[in-house]
Model the fold of this input.
Amino acid sequence: MRVLVAGGAGYIGSHTCKTLAEAGHVPVVYDNLHTGHRWAVKWGAFEQGDLNDGVRLGDVMRKHRPEAVINFAALAYVGESTREPTRYYRANVAGMVSLLEAMRAHDVGSIVFSSSCATYGVPQRLPIVEDMPQSPINPYGQTKLMGERILRDACSFEGLGAVALRYFNVFGPRQRADSPYSGVIAIFAALLAQGRVPTVHGDGLQSRDFVYIDNVVAGNLAAAAAPNVGGKRFNVAAGKSYSLLDLMEELNVILQSSFEPVFEPARVGDVRDSLADIAAAGRELGYQPIVGFREGLRKTVEFYRTQV
Done:
């Protein structure tokens, strides 16, 4: 199958392209390289372009004739979205509309959309199930929720096969650790591998559902292959939660160290706890985490050790 991977030069996208190619599919990466990297495109063809460039996108679809789309293309930094909301709506929402128009014009009938747990906002209870009320607390979460609703309408009124996957806290090798917006595991693992002490905002008891990159990739491929799931959305997570202090303890065990974090005041607007219910994805997609938290941490630490 030929698959257009929008945002395929990014972190999750490039891992997905690798797995697609290994499974015998033909990935076509479409990326504007705003946050992605050309060196990450090692599997399949590469076409540079923006989702909002309808002419360029149409030319690429006409050239490669994809049978399906996986869309990772988005601006994805929560803090940045609060400072530049208009830019986020243009990239994430208008970009989705442009992509759907190109799919219609070239008879591409299915899409897997990378959504986010940010659509839930502050959860009313844990674990988080897909039918809970959604009240995003930042523009990034709002744009992901709008993307889901646009796809739902396309399914209802046009028969598009579209699945939205709400990722929780993704981590693993090759994730950027040099940005304040990077995932906490990437930052902690990279610092500790260098013998440096990470900073914890708050008391360290805030918890997250950390999901290893291989599990997220498996979720995408399962969603692309599953029948009769058009218009639905699923949590993609580990179904377990760990605090930042738990994370530090596990990293110290792996590194055989005894680092203590530096504590600073909590950041305004951070969600305190996050834990996903993944039963629906297991039941309808056959999704199950294949790499556990500790094994994923070991693989991640080994990667950052090679970067020191």
Summary: The mean pLDDT is 95.
